[in-house]
Amino acid sequence: MNYDSFYQKSIENPEAFWAEQSDKIAWFKKPTQILSTDKNGFYRWFAGGELNTCYLSVDYHIEQGRGNQTALIYDSAATNSIIKYTYNEIKEEVSKIAGALRDLGIEKGDTVVIYMPMVPEAAFSMLACARLGAVHSVVFGGFAPHELAIRIDDAKPNVIISASCGIEFDKIIPYKPLLDEAIHLAEFKPKNCLVLQRPMCHANLVGERDIDFATMVAQSKPADCVPVDATDPLYVLYTSGTTGKPKGIVRDNGGHAVAMNFSMKYIYDLNPKDVFWAASDVGWVVGHSYIVYAPLIYGCTTVFFEGKPIKTPDAGTFWRVIDEHKVKVFFTAPTAFRAIKKEDSEAKLKEKYDTSSLKTIFVAGERCDPPTLEWLQQIAQVPIIDHWWQTESGWGIVANMMGVEQFPVKAGSATKPVCGFDVQILGENGQKLGPNEEGYVCIKLPLPPSCLPTLWNDDDRFRSSYLNKFEGYYLTGDGGYIDEEGYVFIMGRVDDVINVAGHRLSTGEMEEIVGSHKAVAECAVVGIADELRGQRPLGLVVLKDGIEISEEVLEEQLIKLIRDQIGAVAFFRNAILVKRLPKTRSGKILRKTIRQLVDGEQFTIPSTIDDVSILSEIELCMRNRKIGVFQ
Ligand code: COA
Ligand code: AMP
Questions:
Q1: Residue closest by Cα to atom 23 of ligand 2
Q2: Which residue out of 119, 240, 292, 308 has the highest number of ligand 1 atoms within 8 Å of its CB and is therefore the one to mutate?
Q3: What confidence tens digit (pLDDT) does each residue in 342-367 have?
Q4: Hey, which of 358, 397, 417, 551 would disulfide with 423, CB 3.0 to 4.6 Å?
Q5: Does residue 366 line the site of ligand 2, with CB under 6 A?
Q6: Which residues contact 56 (CB under 8 A, 6 or more apart)?
Q7: What is the pTM of this model?
Q8: Candidates 3.30.460.80, 3.30.479.10, 3.30.1360.120, 3.40.50.12780; correct CATH number of 1-65+228-307+387-494?
C-alpha cells in the first residue's frame, strides 16, 4: 500500500475516505451524514448513525462465532496472578455490571465516575456504561481527593465505581478514604458508590451510599445494549489544561469506534485475534483507547497489566509478559523503558524469555529521546515506532503507519501525519512555515473521527483553548517542525503543560497551589529535565515581605501541598527561594528562560527582560542546591 495516495485521499476527500472506513463496523443504523456541523458550528462525524460501543466490543464478536476466543488477559505482576476472560465471559461480567448500574437508576446519557486501580472490573465497568449508553469518566487512581472532587463536580455522576485499594510496588494504597475525602470536598454528592473489595484491603462501607460491588452485581439481571447516536458521548476524560480546572475531553461513540477500528489495522498492523498489549493505565487516554476499546472492537486479545516495568518483581517483567501471552504488538511510554534501562542496562533479564512473537514496539505519551530509542532498538531487535497523540485526539496524529507503508525511523520524529490529520506548522501570525521551521503544531479542520467534538459542558473553553488562535485550525499546544521529507518532529509543549513519567500535568495548576501558601508572594513552576521521568516540576518562590521561613521548611510544606492536592505522581520535589522572578518589562514571567537555564540549554537573554541579574541569582541558587545541570 502506498502511504502518499492513501493519506492524500483522506485529506482531499475526508467524507469518502471515512464513509468507506465506517462500513467496517456493525452499525444498528447507518449514518445519514458522514461529516456535518452542529448548532455550534463544530464538526460532527456520522450523524444519524446508531450503534453501541459495548456491542461492537463484545456481543458482535460472539455473534461472529468468536465467543470462546480470549478477549482480555488480566496479568497482575502486583498480585502474582493471571486471569483470562473470553468474549463470552466478558459479556457475562459486563451485562451484569450494567444491570447493577441500571438498578441504581443509571440510564442513557447519565454520567458514572470510575476511580479504580488496574483491575479488570475497571474495564468491565467502562463497557457496562457504554452498554447502557451512560457516559463514563475514569479518574486516574494516582490523583489525590482534591483532583477527584473537581472531576465529580464537573461530571456530576449519580454513581461512582471504585475499589478498596490499588497496589504501587509493595505499597497497598487504600482508595476508600480518598474517595470519601473527595466526596466530602465536592459540592455535588453522588447517590451511590459501588466498591469492589479486594482481598488485600477491606474498605469500610458506611451509610446508604456505599454498596458492595460483588454483591450488587451478583444480584442484578443482565442488561442489553442500548442503541445510541453516533454523536452521543461515550466518555469524558479529564486532562490537564493550563489552569487548575482540567478539561473534560468528550469522546463520541461513532467517530471513536470507526477510528479505533481503523488504527488497529493501519497504524498497528494487527489482525483480529492477535495479542496486543498497551502497558498504561485505564486512567489515561492510552488505557481507554488501547487497553480497552480498540483491541476489543477489532477482535484482538488485550493484555490488561497491573504492575510496573521494574520491581514487580524485576526489570524483566515486560519481557515475561510478552513471552507468556505471545504479544505481537506492545505499546508503552518511553519512561518505562528508561526505568528498565537503568536497572538492566544490558537487558540480561530479557535472555530468560522467548520474545519472538513480538513484531513491533510502539511508544507515546512523551517525547522518545534518541538514547532510549537507540538502546531499545538494539536490545529489542524489532521496529521501535514513536507516535504522537493527545487525549484530545484519542489516537495517533503522527505515526509510522505500519499497516500502510513502513518508513525508515528518524530519531526524534514520530514520522508522518496519520490519515485524516492535516498537520501544519504555523508561525505566531498564523502564517504557514516552511520545512525545518519551528512553530505551533496545528491541524487544519475538520479533525478526523474520534477527536474531541467539544469540551464537556464548555463550548466556550473549547473555542478559546483550541480554535480561536488560528482560524480554521486546531491548536495542539505542542511546538515542532516538519522536515523536507515530511517527517514531523514534536519538540514539546508551548503552554503550561508538562509531562512527568508520561503523566500530563499542569504547571499552571501547580502555581495556583504553591501561590495559595500564605508565605508566598509569587511563584513560577517550570518543567525541568528528569532522567527517568522526562520532566519534573521545579518551583521558584518569592516570599511575601516580612515573612520569615527557611527554604527547607517552605519546601517541605509545598511538597506536601502539591502531594495532597494533585497527588504523588506530580513528583514535585524542589522549591527554591528567590528574591524576584525574571520577567519581561510588561510583567510576563520568563518561564522558558528559567527552564533553559536549569537544563543547561543554550539560550539568548530576552531583550525585553527587566533585570538580567536575576538570572545569575537563579543560577547561583541552582548551583547551591545542585539542581538540573548543576547537580
Ligand atoms: N496510584 C497511586 N500512586 C501512584 C500511582 C498510582 N496509580 N502511580 C504513581 N504513584 C505514586 C508513586 O507510588 C510515587 O509515590 P511516592 O512518591 O510515595 O514514592 C509517586 O507517585 C511518583 O511516581 P512515579 O513518578 O511513577 O515514580 P516511581 O518511582 O513510582 O515509578 C516508573 C517510576 C518509571 C516505574 C513509573 O513512572 C512508570 O511505570 N512509568 C510509566 C508510566 C506510564 O505508563 N504512563 C502511561 C502514559 S501512556
Ligand atoms: P496526553 O493528552 O496525556 O496523551 O498528553 C499529550 C501530550 O503528550 C502531547 O501534547 C505531547 O506534548 C506529549 N506527547 C505525547 N506523545 C508524544 C510523542 N510521541 N512525542 C512527543 N510528545 C508526545
A1: 366
A2: 308
A3: 999 999 999 999 999 999 999 999 99
A4: 417
A5: yes
A6: 25, 26, 257, 297
A7: 0.97
A8: 3.40.50.12780
